[in-house]
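Structure in, sequence out. Go:
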């Protein structure tokens, strides 16, 4: 091998080593960011139970459904426990993620304004991350998606909304 060939090989090897180092550093940074996001998500997940408590508290304050002038906001677990309780209302799944700031804002708005829910409407707070079957059934790919269904569970409307008012505006008659 002549001197020129050795220099070319040395340059190529150096570039490969530098590129590998940059790649490893970048992957490390991405992994650290991912871990930080997961830690945030776990911290916010504990707040989700507070949100669920707030939803339940808001519903307890409402009168009996037959006499209530406003709709309902319930968790998916509460809805599934007794779906017949909501048989006479329009059912709307609110695909919510505890780590999603838009979802958190809408949730707070709904809880603070349950009296503004139409009397014949039930919003069902549905966890985006764990309700995979429902997401697949309705083709939901984004948090803060709302899916209105008929009595048989067939989709009648789907929309995304970044506020309580926009969520209400999407309800179909």
């Amino acid at each position: 091998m002549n001197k020129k060939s050795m220099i070319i090989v040395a340059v190529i090897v150096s570039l490969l080593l530098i590129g590998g180092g940059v790649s490893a550093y970048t992957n490390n940074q991405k992994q650290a960011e991912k871990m930080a996001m997961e830690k945030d998500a776990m911290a916010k997940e504990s707040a989700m139970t507070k949100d669920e408590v707030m939803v339940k508290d808001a519903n307890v304050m409402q009168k009996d459904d037959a006499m209530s002038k406003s709709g309902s906001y319930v968790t998916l677990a509460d809805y599934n426990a007794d779906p017949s309780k909501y048989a006479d209302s329009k059912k709307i799944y609110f695909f919510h993620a505890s780590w999603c700031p838009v979802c958190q804002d809408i949730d707070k708005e709904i809880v603070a304004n349950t009296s503004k829910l139409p009397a014949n409407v039930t919003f069902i707070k549905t966890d985006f991350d764990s309700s995979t079957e429902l997401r697949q059934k309705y083709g939901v790919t984004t948090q803060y998606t709302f899916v209105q269904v008929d009595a048989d569970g067939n989709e009648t409307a789907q929309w995304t909304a970044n506020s309580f008012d926009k969520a209400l505006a999407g309800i179909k008659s």
